[in-house]
Amino acid sequence: MSPARPDAEGAGGPLLRLAAPELDDLLRLVLRRAPGAEWATFARFGWRETARGLVLTLAALDPPEPGDLDEGIRDIKIAAPYLRRIALAAESHPLAVGLVHSHPDEAAPRPSALDDEMDAYLAAYVADFAPGRPFASLILSRVEGEIALSGRVFLNGSWHGIERVSAERRPDIRAWPGGERPAPAPMPPERVARLTSAFGREAYQRLQRSTVALIGAGGTGSAAIPILARAGVGRLIVVDADHASESNLERLHGSTPGDAADAVPKVAIARRHVASMAPDVTVEAWFGRLPQPEILDAVLQADVLMGCTDQHSSRLAVADVAARYALPAIDCGGLIEGRDGVVTGQIIQLVRFLAADPCPACRGMISTVRLRQELLSPEERLTAAQQAAEAIARGERPDPIATAIPQIDTVGYITTTAGTLAAGYVVGWLTGRFDPRFERLQLDLVAESLGAVDRPQRWRPDCACGRVRGQADQAIDPPPVQPPPHWPEPRRLA
Fold it and tell me: Is the peptide bond before 291 cis (omega within 30 degrees of 0)?
């Protein structure tokens, strides 16, 4: 069994997702003998097979112990005890096994004849003690200040070349399919001249090859979408299961009265809006909800995920995807507070969800009552409302689940501000030019100095979010939100 050298631009090749702190540990370890010599480590990966190809996520390292690798030579020689230890460990976990090794600085991460021989042996060896699981072989090196990474995955009897790498907040890590340098990026168009003047030509090129997924195309989502499109993000995946209505028009960017009259899907409005301003940006429009499997498969292709619904169920799903599949996310929302006819607060909240961040349940952001209400079917909502009315008529306090879902009172300038700010931070991540210095940012537009506060929070020891990081579909803990049977089947707009 000899590994086939993958084509540089093959279809359906695996996507590799990398999150800190595992990525930081990996780079420190395998580059420890740079610039001139190689080093290696075994690693564990979660994975998900999608219609678009395999998604692989770095979950943990199994680093070498003294004597496991030969330090007396410049390349890689693995001792038998290291192999046996990896085999024994794999019997106690369901994750895929892989080997990651470095090449010297400025050397392409192209597999050598020795690498081909080693990969063929290890793929057969791993198949004996972890049948049915992928075996991943990755090579990385530093080339002109960036991390160049190539790789291949053995699964179901054949090799698949890794085509894309998405590293959390690290746009300097690029895939070199088959170990070959990617084609030069296109020159920026004149319409992004101010962005390139501020951030540099390379920033636009990073945006152009990036993908952003947005859950929600209403007030906040419809404000974020044109910011990302005008900046030059190459692909947008937009997800929403709602149609335009008369009450949406005040805050739904790109909408017209005709859209409300015709009940046009919000994702169709978003796609049309982008086409009118940035026709070179690809918009993939989905009528559906996260975490429906088809929607999950779609958003996993993104480099950043944006939560723009202000729903508890959606916020839980976004954070779970961020942790489980190493997909960095920003959740945004807004709220008006008032008393006795006077507005007392106009709140905007941006929450960072990286793989190692606590989930919204840990942060105290989730109401179990509100979560159950959001997942009720229309029939269940009607029954609950009737039960609540009957309880009130009897002078009793109704079950909180039986009360109507509270309407979030907000207006266009608040949702626009929230969506625009969040999109700006996404641009910072994708370009590598700046990083959000907050975990949970809250602003009050009518408070002194905007009342800005950051609220760093910690994991709850009993919460699953600290256990599922990078484990993808192989995590023992199930996702916190399951799509209820009454949700319509998702569909991609043609």
Answer: yes
DSSP letters, 295-313, are HHHHHTT-SEEEE-S--HH
End-to-end CA distance of the chain: 41
Which position has the token pair 């480590």?
41
Element containing residue 137 per DSSP (H, E)? strand 135-143
Q: What is the pLDDT along the chain (494 residues), one digit of tens a residue?
A: 556 543 333 347 899 999 999 999 999 999 999 999 999 999 999 999 998 999 999 999 999 999 999 999 999 999 999 999 999 999 999 999 999 999 999 999 999 999 999 999 999 999 999 999 999 999 999 999 899 999 999 999 999 999 999 999 999 999 999 999 999 888 888 888 888 989 999 999 999 999 999 999 999 999 999 999 999 999 999 999 999 999 999 999 999 999 999 999 999 999 999 999 999 999 999 999 999 999 999 999 999 999 999 899 999 999 999 999 999 999 998 888 877 778 888 999 999 999 999 999 999 999 999 999 999 999 998 998 899 889 999 999 888 887 766 655 688 999 999 999 999 999 999 999 999 889 999 999 999 999 999 999 998 989 999 899 999 999 999 999 999 999 999 999 98
- β-pairing, 282-287 with 304-307? unpaired
**In this structure, which amino acid lies at residue 350?**
L
CA atoms within 13 A on the CB side of 344: 5
The number of residues making up the chain comes to 494
54: amino acid identity, one letter? L
The whole-angstrom separation of Cα 420 and Cα 314 is 20
Domain 190-492 grouped into CATH 3.40.50.720:
yes
CA distances in angstroms from 169 to 172, 221, 224, 433, listed in the order given: 9, 21, 19, 10
User: Could you tell me where in the chain the CATH 3.40.50.720 domains are found?
Assistant: 190-492
Pick the CATH number of 15-179 from 3.30.70.660, 3.40.140.10, 3.40.50.1000, 3.30.420.40: 3.40.140.10
pTM for this model (two decimals) = 0.94
Note the Cα 168 to chain centre separation in Å: 9
Write out the residue limits of the CATH 3.40.140.10 domain(s) in the chain: 15-179
